[in-house]
Amino acid sequence: MTDSEKLDLILSEMQDMKSEMQELKRRTTNIELHIENVTDKNIQLIAENFIELTNKLNQAIPAADKNLAYEVKVNYLVSEVDKLKREIAELKSKIA
User: What is the spatial distance between Cα 67 and Cα 57, in angstroms, rounded to a whole number?
Assistant: First the structure.
Protein backbone atom coordinates (compact mmCIF):
# COMPACT_ATOMS: atom_id res chain seq x y z
CA MET A 1 0.00 0.00 0.00
CA THR A 2 1.43 3.33 -1.00
CA ASP A 3 1.46 6.48 1.02
CA SER A 4 -1.17 7.99 -1.26
CA GLU A 5 -3.49 5.02 -0.75
CA LYS A 6 -2.99 5.22 2.99
CA LEU A 7 -3.85 8.92 2.94
CA ASP A 8 -6.94 8.23 0.81
CA LEU A 9 -8.02 5.53 3.26
CA ILE A 10 -7.50 7.87 6.22
CA LEU A 11 -9.39 10.63 4.39
CA SER A 12 -12.25 8.25 3.66
CA GLU A 13 -12.40 7.17 7.30
CA MET A 14 -12.35 10.80 8.40
CA GLN A 15 -15.27 11.60 6.07
CA ASP A 16 -17.22 8.67 7.57
CA MET A 17 -16.44 9.92 11.06
CA LYS A 18 -17.49 13.43 10.09
CA SER A 19 -20.85 12.24 8.76
CA GLU A 20 -21.38 10.12 11.90
CA MET A 21 -20.58 13.10 14.10
CA GLN A 22 -23.06 15.24 12.16
CA GLU A 23 -25.70 12.55 12.67
CA LEU A 24 -24.90 12.46 16.41
CA LYS A 25 -25.12 16.24 16.54
CA ARG A 26 -28.53 16.15 14.85
CA ARG A 27 -29.81 13.46 17.21
CA THR A 28 -28.49 15.33 20.25
CA THR A 29 -30.26 18.48 19.10
CA ASN A 30 -33.51 16.53 18.63
CA ILE A 31 -33.19 15.03 22.11
CA GLU A 32 -32.56 18.45 23.65
CA LEU A 33 -35.59 19.88 21.87
CA HIS A 34 -37.75 16.97 22.99
CA ILE A 35 -36.66 17.40 26.59
CA GLU A 36 -37.29 21.13 26.47
CA ASN A 37 -40.63 21.02 24.64
CA VAL A 38 -42.23 17.81 25.85
CA THR A 39 -40.63 16.37 28.96
CA ASP A 40 -40.17 19.64 30.83
CA LYS A 41 -43.72 20.70 30.00
CA ASN A 42 -45.16 17.37 31.21
CA ILE A 43 -43.15 17.53 34.43
CA GLN A 44 -44.48 21.05 35.02
CA LEU A 45 -48.07 19.85 34.46
CA ILE A 46 -47.58 16.97 36.90
CA ALA A 47 -46.10 19.31 39.50
CA GLU A 48 -48.99 21.76 39.13
CA ASN A 49 -51.53 18.96 39.50
CA PHE A 50 -49.69 17.60 42.53
CA ILE A 51 -49.87 21.02 44.20
CA GLU A 52 -53.60 21.17 43.43
CA LEU A 53 -54.13 17.69 44.91
CA THR A 54 -52.19 18.70 48.01
CA ASN A 55 -54.41 21.75 48.42
CA LYS A 56 -57.55 19.62 48.03
CA LEU A 57 -56.24 17.13 50.59
CA ASN A 58 -55.52 19.94 53.04
CA GLN A 59 -59.09 21.18 52.59
CA ALA A 60 -60.50 17.68 53.13
CA ILE A 61 -58.52 16.94 56.30
CA PRO A 62 -60.26 19.54 58.49
CA ALA A 63 -63.61 18.13 57.36
CA ALA A 64 -62.47 14.65 58.33
CA ASP A 65 -61.32 15.98 61.72
CA LYS A 66 -64.73 17.58 62.25
CA ASN A 67 -66.47 14.32 61.38
CA LEU A 68 -64.32 12.49 63.91
CA ALA A 69 -65.13 15.07 66.58
CA TYR A 70 -68.85 14.76 65.81
CA GLU A 71 -68.61 10.97 66.00
CA VAL A 72 -67.01 11.20 69.44
CA LYS A 73 -69.74 13.59 70.61
CA VAL A 74 -72.50 11.32 69.30
CA ASN A 75 -70.95 8.30 71.02
CA TYR A 76 -70.79 10.26 74.27
CA LEU A 77 -74.42 11.36 73.92
CA VAL A 78 -75.55 7.79 73.18
CA SER A 79 -73.85 6.55 76.34
CA GLU A 80 -75.42 9.38 78.35
CA VAL A 81 -78.90 8.56 76.99
CA ASP A 82 -78.37 4.88 77.89
CA LYS A 83 -77.33 5.93 81.40
CA LEU A 84 -80.42 8.13 81.77
CA LYS A 85 -82.66 5.29 80.56
CA ARG A 86 -81.24 2.99 83.23
CA GLU A 87 -81.73 5.63 85.93
CA ILE A 88 -85.35 6.19 84.84
CA ALA A 89 -85.96 2.45 84.81
CA GLU A 90 -84.57 2.22 88.38
CA LEU A 91 -86.76 5.08 89.52
CA LYS A 92 -89.84 3.48 87.97
CA SER A 93 -89.06 0.16 89.65
CA LYS A 94 -88.68 1.87 93.05
CA ILE A 95 -91.98 3.71 92.66
CA ALA A 96 -93.87 0.63 91.57
Answer: 15
pTM score, whole prediction: 0.46
24-83 tens-digit pLDDT: 999 999 999 988 888 888 888 888 888 888 888 778 787 777 787 788 899 999 999 999
d(CA 34, CA 32): 5
CA distances from 35 to 23, 27, 49 (A): 18, 12, 20
Q: What element of type H or E holds 81?
A: helix 40-95
Contacting residues for 9 by C-beta, under 8 A, at least 6 apart: 1
Residue 2, SS3 per DSSP: coil
